Amino acid sequence: MKRVIIIGASSGIGRMLAEHYASEGCKVAIAARREENLKEIQSLYPNNVSYAVMDVTQSSASDIFNSLLESAGGADLILYCSGAGKHSEELLPEIEHLTTDVNVNGFLNIIVPAFNYFVNRQENSEYVPQIVTISSVASFRGLGASPSYSATKRFQSIYFEALGQLSAIKRVKIDFTAIKPGFIATDFISRKYIMTMPLPYAVKRIIKAIERRKKNCIIDWRWAIAVALMKLIPTCIWRKLRIH
């Protein structure tokens, strides 16, 4: 039985992924801040799902994650789905710091012990370990309306690239997958944007990218084209664009 841990599973992408893996018969351990949402998921799959309440920005997050690993009997697939980010054209400190806390500090609170767990994993498993993060197409270019969001999602992608090299140095096989979606219709997005994808549509493609163990995957093909065009724009022109 495949063992899956999902951080940030109370809603949106994380919740749909949790329900998918539980319905597939995997042993799923989930964590997030909102206990009532976690209980609801567990009630749907009582034989497959366990949970822990966690705020990834708190120093206790790593200890809770390790406890979740122990209670779940280990893991084969670990997903970091927690995220924060809002428009911040006024460069509001509370937005910038919260985004950094969740997307960098919270990310590290989980990914560091996850990596070390797989490096030192003692129990046998038929699955090659895999760690997944939900990054963003915003990681490709700095968006003036969301500076900290763009930068922190870029951080996650580069960190995974570095961990891929580090695992090779340590001669431990670990697959790292950075999912980079465009706009997805979740509570995370407060308004309708161009090319916003329905959640089930996006999650279906995220699951496929995870199964194929892609290192980087833009969701979906339209956003792949958009990213290719974004990369072609010279910096002197990019700086003058007003992108929301």
Keywords summarizing the entry:
Rossmann fold; 47% helix; alpha/beta; 8 helices; 244 residues
Account of the 3D structure:
By secondary structure, the protein is an alpha/beta fold. It has a single domain, classed as 3-Layer(aba) Sandwich (Rossmann fold). It has 8 helices and 7 strands; from the N terminus they run βαβαβαβαβαβαβαα. The longest helix is centred in the middle third of the chain and has 28 residues. It is globular, with a radius of gyration of 18 Å. The mean pLDDT is 91.
Q: Percent of residues in beta strands? A: 5-15%
The largest beta-sheet arranges its strands as 3-2-1-4-5-6-7
Helix segment tally: 8
Mean pLDDT: 91
Low-confidence stretches: none
Gyration radius from CA atoms, angstroms: 18 Å
Question: What is the CATH architecture descriptor?
Answer: 3-Layer(aba) Sandwich
> What is the level 1 CATH name?
Alpha Beta
The largest sheet is:
7 strands, parallel
> What share of residues is helical?
40-55%
Kindly identify the CATH topology.
Answer: Rossmann fold
**What sequence of helices (H) and strands (E) makes up the elements?**
EHEHEHEHEHEHEHH
The CATH homologous superfamily is named: NAD(P)-binding Rossmann-like Domain
Total number of domains: 1
Summarize the structure.
By secondary structure, this protein is of the alpha/beta class. 47% of the residues lie in helices and 15% in strands.
What is the element layout, followed by pairings?
Blueprint: E1 3-7, H1 12-23, E2 27-32, H2 35-44, E3 49-53, H3 61-72, E4 77-80, H4 93-120, E5 130-134, H5 147-169, E6 175-181, H6 199-211, E7 216-219, H7 221-232, H8 235-238
